[in-house]
Design goal:
The protein is mainly beta and about 550 residues long. Among the domains are: about 120 residues, lipopolysaccharide transport protein A fold (Sandwich); about 210 residues, lipopolysaccharide transport protein A fold. Helices cover about 5% and strands about 60% of the residues. The protein has 1 helix and 38 strands. The radius of gyration is 42 Å and the shape is rod-shaped.
């Protein structure tokens, strides 16, 4: 019987222990909730003197001398205070300091703190320290729940080497992002930024501007309405038709990226690069430029426009490159490389070639691989064509290898033709006044009766050298050392004698306007030059550094 009773008692005890355990857990939860509720209160840690004055402030404890409050991880100090225990708040006066951990400190002459909302309203000579940043203002509300300080009476933030100013804004101690609005001014040793709206991340040193904004750094100036600038790396990225300017040059694109330390700039989509110093511009969908080295590259619908003359020159190729030599010296010069399907148009001159190199040192433009040049009713082609410019106007031309000059007469069915190994043409004010042909010269020429302007016949001549002197676009004199020729009357011209063996007239290839430079048209089969060892254009990159991947 006793054994059964003990067993029954043990069962009861075990059940009781479970109930006691559950009761203790519930009690513990209640105590935790009570502690939490109790911890929400503002505690007065110390004051040298405490009093009540029903006449001055009947709801407050008046505190003086080394006043110290504590509230949920924040310690607050001041010279004197009015403590409203019923509303869980206080007013602090004189040398007010709030410290939270080892990363945040708030100083002011006056502050009101609400423990329920955890909101501090600091006034007069306010300084907010957070990590390496310092915010100075006269009016700041600091929300401890969200870690955000709001200023609305002008503010200045100091971060590393940067200084930010604005009329009003906010700073988040959680994200370390400052938002500045109206009359925003960001200054550093290397740059000066102004904007209407700026977001600045003190952790990454990156500024994001919204609205009309200017960034000035040395000789560079950036305008953007949506831009990002890193004050540490001095790298920027801009969107929405931003403009980069530098010493008379500007670049605009849908997206622009710039590195102020390296001088590199990249622009994408509807890019316009203008050099007002040299009076030329470039359009493309991608453009790279380095203002320290003077190197530039453009591709994707790239066009160079020379507007130094009243009539602008338009030139297109798959890829355009600019190399600058002896930069920042008195002997500086540049080379422009245009390659793959180069086409150029100006009202008085047009050209096509596989590639082109223009050197500013001697103002020489060299076209490679099946080049053709047209001016008025004349066509010039060969293996390599060199054109020298003077004051942006053609001065001299040299055709090297399989040279052919064709002039279409006014009746459009007869053609004056000259072929030779090489050919020179000389110009004055854009008008040709002399043509020289050397080695294996063949000529088909139609003399004109000056009395009625009719064609006399066809003159076929072979010689070793030829000089033709022109005046007002008309031939005045021909010189040859020794020649063999035949004059055929117009009614007795053999059909096989009307054209030289290498004659070709490429009207269908000729660019007809500035838009036509984008439409590539190759030579007809059978009209190509003889297969010879071509003279190739210079390598399209600087030695030691391939820029094709820029």
């Amino acid at each position: 019987m006793r054994r059964h009773f003990n067993h029954f008692a043990q069962k009861i005890f075990r059940g009781h222990r479970v109930i006691v355990t559950l009761t203790l857990c519930l009690f513990g939860l209640c105590m935790i909730q009570a502690v939490k509720k109790k911890d929400n209160r503002v505690y007065l840690v110390h004051a040298d003197r405490l009093k009540y004055d029903v006449y001055v402030n009947p709801d407050a404890q008046i505190l003086n001398g080394k006043v110290h409050f504590s509230h949920q991880g924040a310690e607050l100090f001041c010279d004197s205070a009015h403590f409203y225990e019923a509303s869980n708040s206080f007013e602090a006066f004189g040398h007010v300091k709030m410290v939270q951990g080892d990363t945040l400190k708030l100083l002011s002459d006056y502050a009101y703190y609400d423990g329920n909302d955890q909101m501090a309203e600091a006034r007069n000579h306010v300084i907010l320290y957070h990590r390496q940043s310092r915010l100075e203002t006269d009016s700041l509300n600091y929300d401890r729940l969200y870690g955000i300080g709001y200023f609305f009476d002008k503010g200045t933030m100091y971060d590393k080497t940067s200084v930010l100013r604005s009329d009003w804004g906010e700073y988040s101690t959680a994200t370390r992002v400052a938002k500045f609005f109206y009359q925003v001014d960001l200054t550093d040793e290397q740059y000066h930024l102004t904007s209407d709206t700026l977001y600045y991340n003190t952790a990454t040193s990156e500024a994001h501007t919204i609205g009309p904004s200017d960034v000035v750094s040395g000789n560079s100036r950036i305008y953007t309405e949506d831009g990002y600038y890193n004050t540490s790396t001095e790298q920027s990225r801009m969107y929405g038709r931003s403009v980069l300017r530098n010493q008379g040059r500007s670049m605009v694109g849908d997206s622009v990226f710039h590195d102020n330390k390296t001088g590199e700039s990249r622009a994408y989509a509807h890019v316009i690069y203008v050099d007002s110093v040299n009076k030329n511009m470039l359009t493309a969908n991608y453009c790279y430029h380095n203002n320290m080295t003077g190197y530039a590259m453009a591709t994707d619908s790239a066009v160079v426009i020379d507007f130094s003359q009243a009539d602008s020159l338009y030139m297109h190729a798959d890829t355009l490159k600019l190399f600058t030599f002896n930069i920042n010296t008195d002997s500086v010069y540049r080379e422009i490389h245009a390659y793959n399907k180069m086409r150029a148009y100006r009202r008085d001159v047009q050209a096509v070639a596989d590639s082109l190199v223009y050197n500013t040192l001697d103002s020489c433009m060299t076209m490679y691989k099946d080049p053709i040049v047209w001016t008025n009713n004349q066509q010039l082609l060969g293996e390599v064509i060199r054109v020298w410019m003077k004051d942006s106007t053609i001065h001299k031309a040299h055709v090297d290898g399989q040279a052919l000059s064709v002039e279409q007469l006014s009746d459009t069915i007869h053609y004056n033709q000259i072929t030779s190994k090489e050919m020179f043409a000389y110009f004055h004010k854009g008008e040709i006044y002399e043509t020289d042909a050397n080695d294996n010269v063949q000529i088909i020429y139609y003399p004109i009766d000056e009395s009625d302007s009719t064609l006399i016949g066809l003159n076929y001549t072979e010689t070793s050298k030829l000089k033709i002197f022109m005046e007002n676009r008309k031939m005045r004199r021909i010189w040859m050392p020794k020649a063999e020729g035949t004059l055929y009357p117009m009614t007795q011209i053999p059909s096989q004698k009307k054209f030289l063996p290498n004659y070709a007239w490429f009207a269908e290839i000729r660019p007809v306007d500035k838009e036509d430079i984008f439409v590539y048209r190759g030579k007809r089969a059978g009209t190509e030059l003889k297969v010879v060892k071509r003279k190739s254009a210079p390598v399209q990159y600087l030695k030691g550094k391939d820029h094709d991947n820029e």
